[in-house]
Design goal:
Number of strands: 0
Largest sheet: none
Number of helices: 6
Shape: elongated
Mean pLDDT: 93
Radius of gyration: 22 Å
Low-confidence stretches: none
Distance between the termini: 69 Å
């Protein structure tokens, strides 16, 4: 018995030849209910990729936020409006992400400490301070980091 062959959609060739046209064509097919014409294999791949991108954006914004919170705490003499802007902007992005996709809150909480560890290393590199200057455990909770009013002492 042979394995079933995937159904090749008439527009599957577009995926590699003209991605934007593939997107437009796929959206039109979905809107018009022409589901049998949809390039499912590539559509599924793109949807999965979008989910991974959302997670990476969350992690990236959290690491940047944590690096700046660490710098703010450990280099008070170098505090600047630029640092404050970065702190507030990345909090805004995180809060917007979590508002738009509440299901990412669990992922955010589960990956907070891993992101904090990355932030420690980056903060050490950026400040010139040794890694030992930054505690292994975060001073701040995930909720504090998302609070637009919170700044470390």
């Amino acid at each position: 018995m042979t394995a079933p062959q995937p159904i090749i959609s008439p527009n599957s060739h577009l995926y590699d030849q003209d991605f934007y046209l593939w997107l437009e064509t796929t959206a039109k097919q979905l809107k018009e209910g022409r589901f049998s014409e949809v390039d499912l294999e590539n559509l599924i791949e793109e949807i999965e990729c979008m989910g991974r991108s959302e997670k990476r954006a969350l992690e990236s914004n959290l690491v940047v936020l944590l690096v700046h919170l660490l710098k703010y705490k450990y280099q008070p003499e170098k505090r600047s409006n630029s640092w404050l802007f970065t702190i507030f902007e990345h909090r805004r992005r995180l809060n917007k992400n979590l508002q738009d996709s509440p299901s990412l809150k669990k992922y955010f909480a589960e990956n907070f400490m891993e992101c904090y560890q990355d932030a420690r290393h980056l903060a050490a590199l950026e400040t010139g301070l040794t890694l030992d200057n930054f505690p292994v455990e975060s001073f701040w909770t995930a909720d504090e980091c998302l609070n637009q009013e919170f700044l470390p002492d």
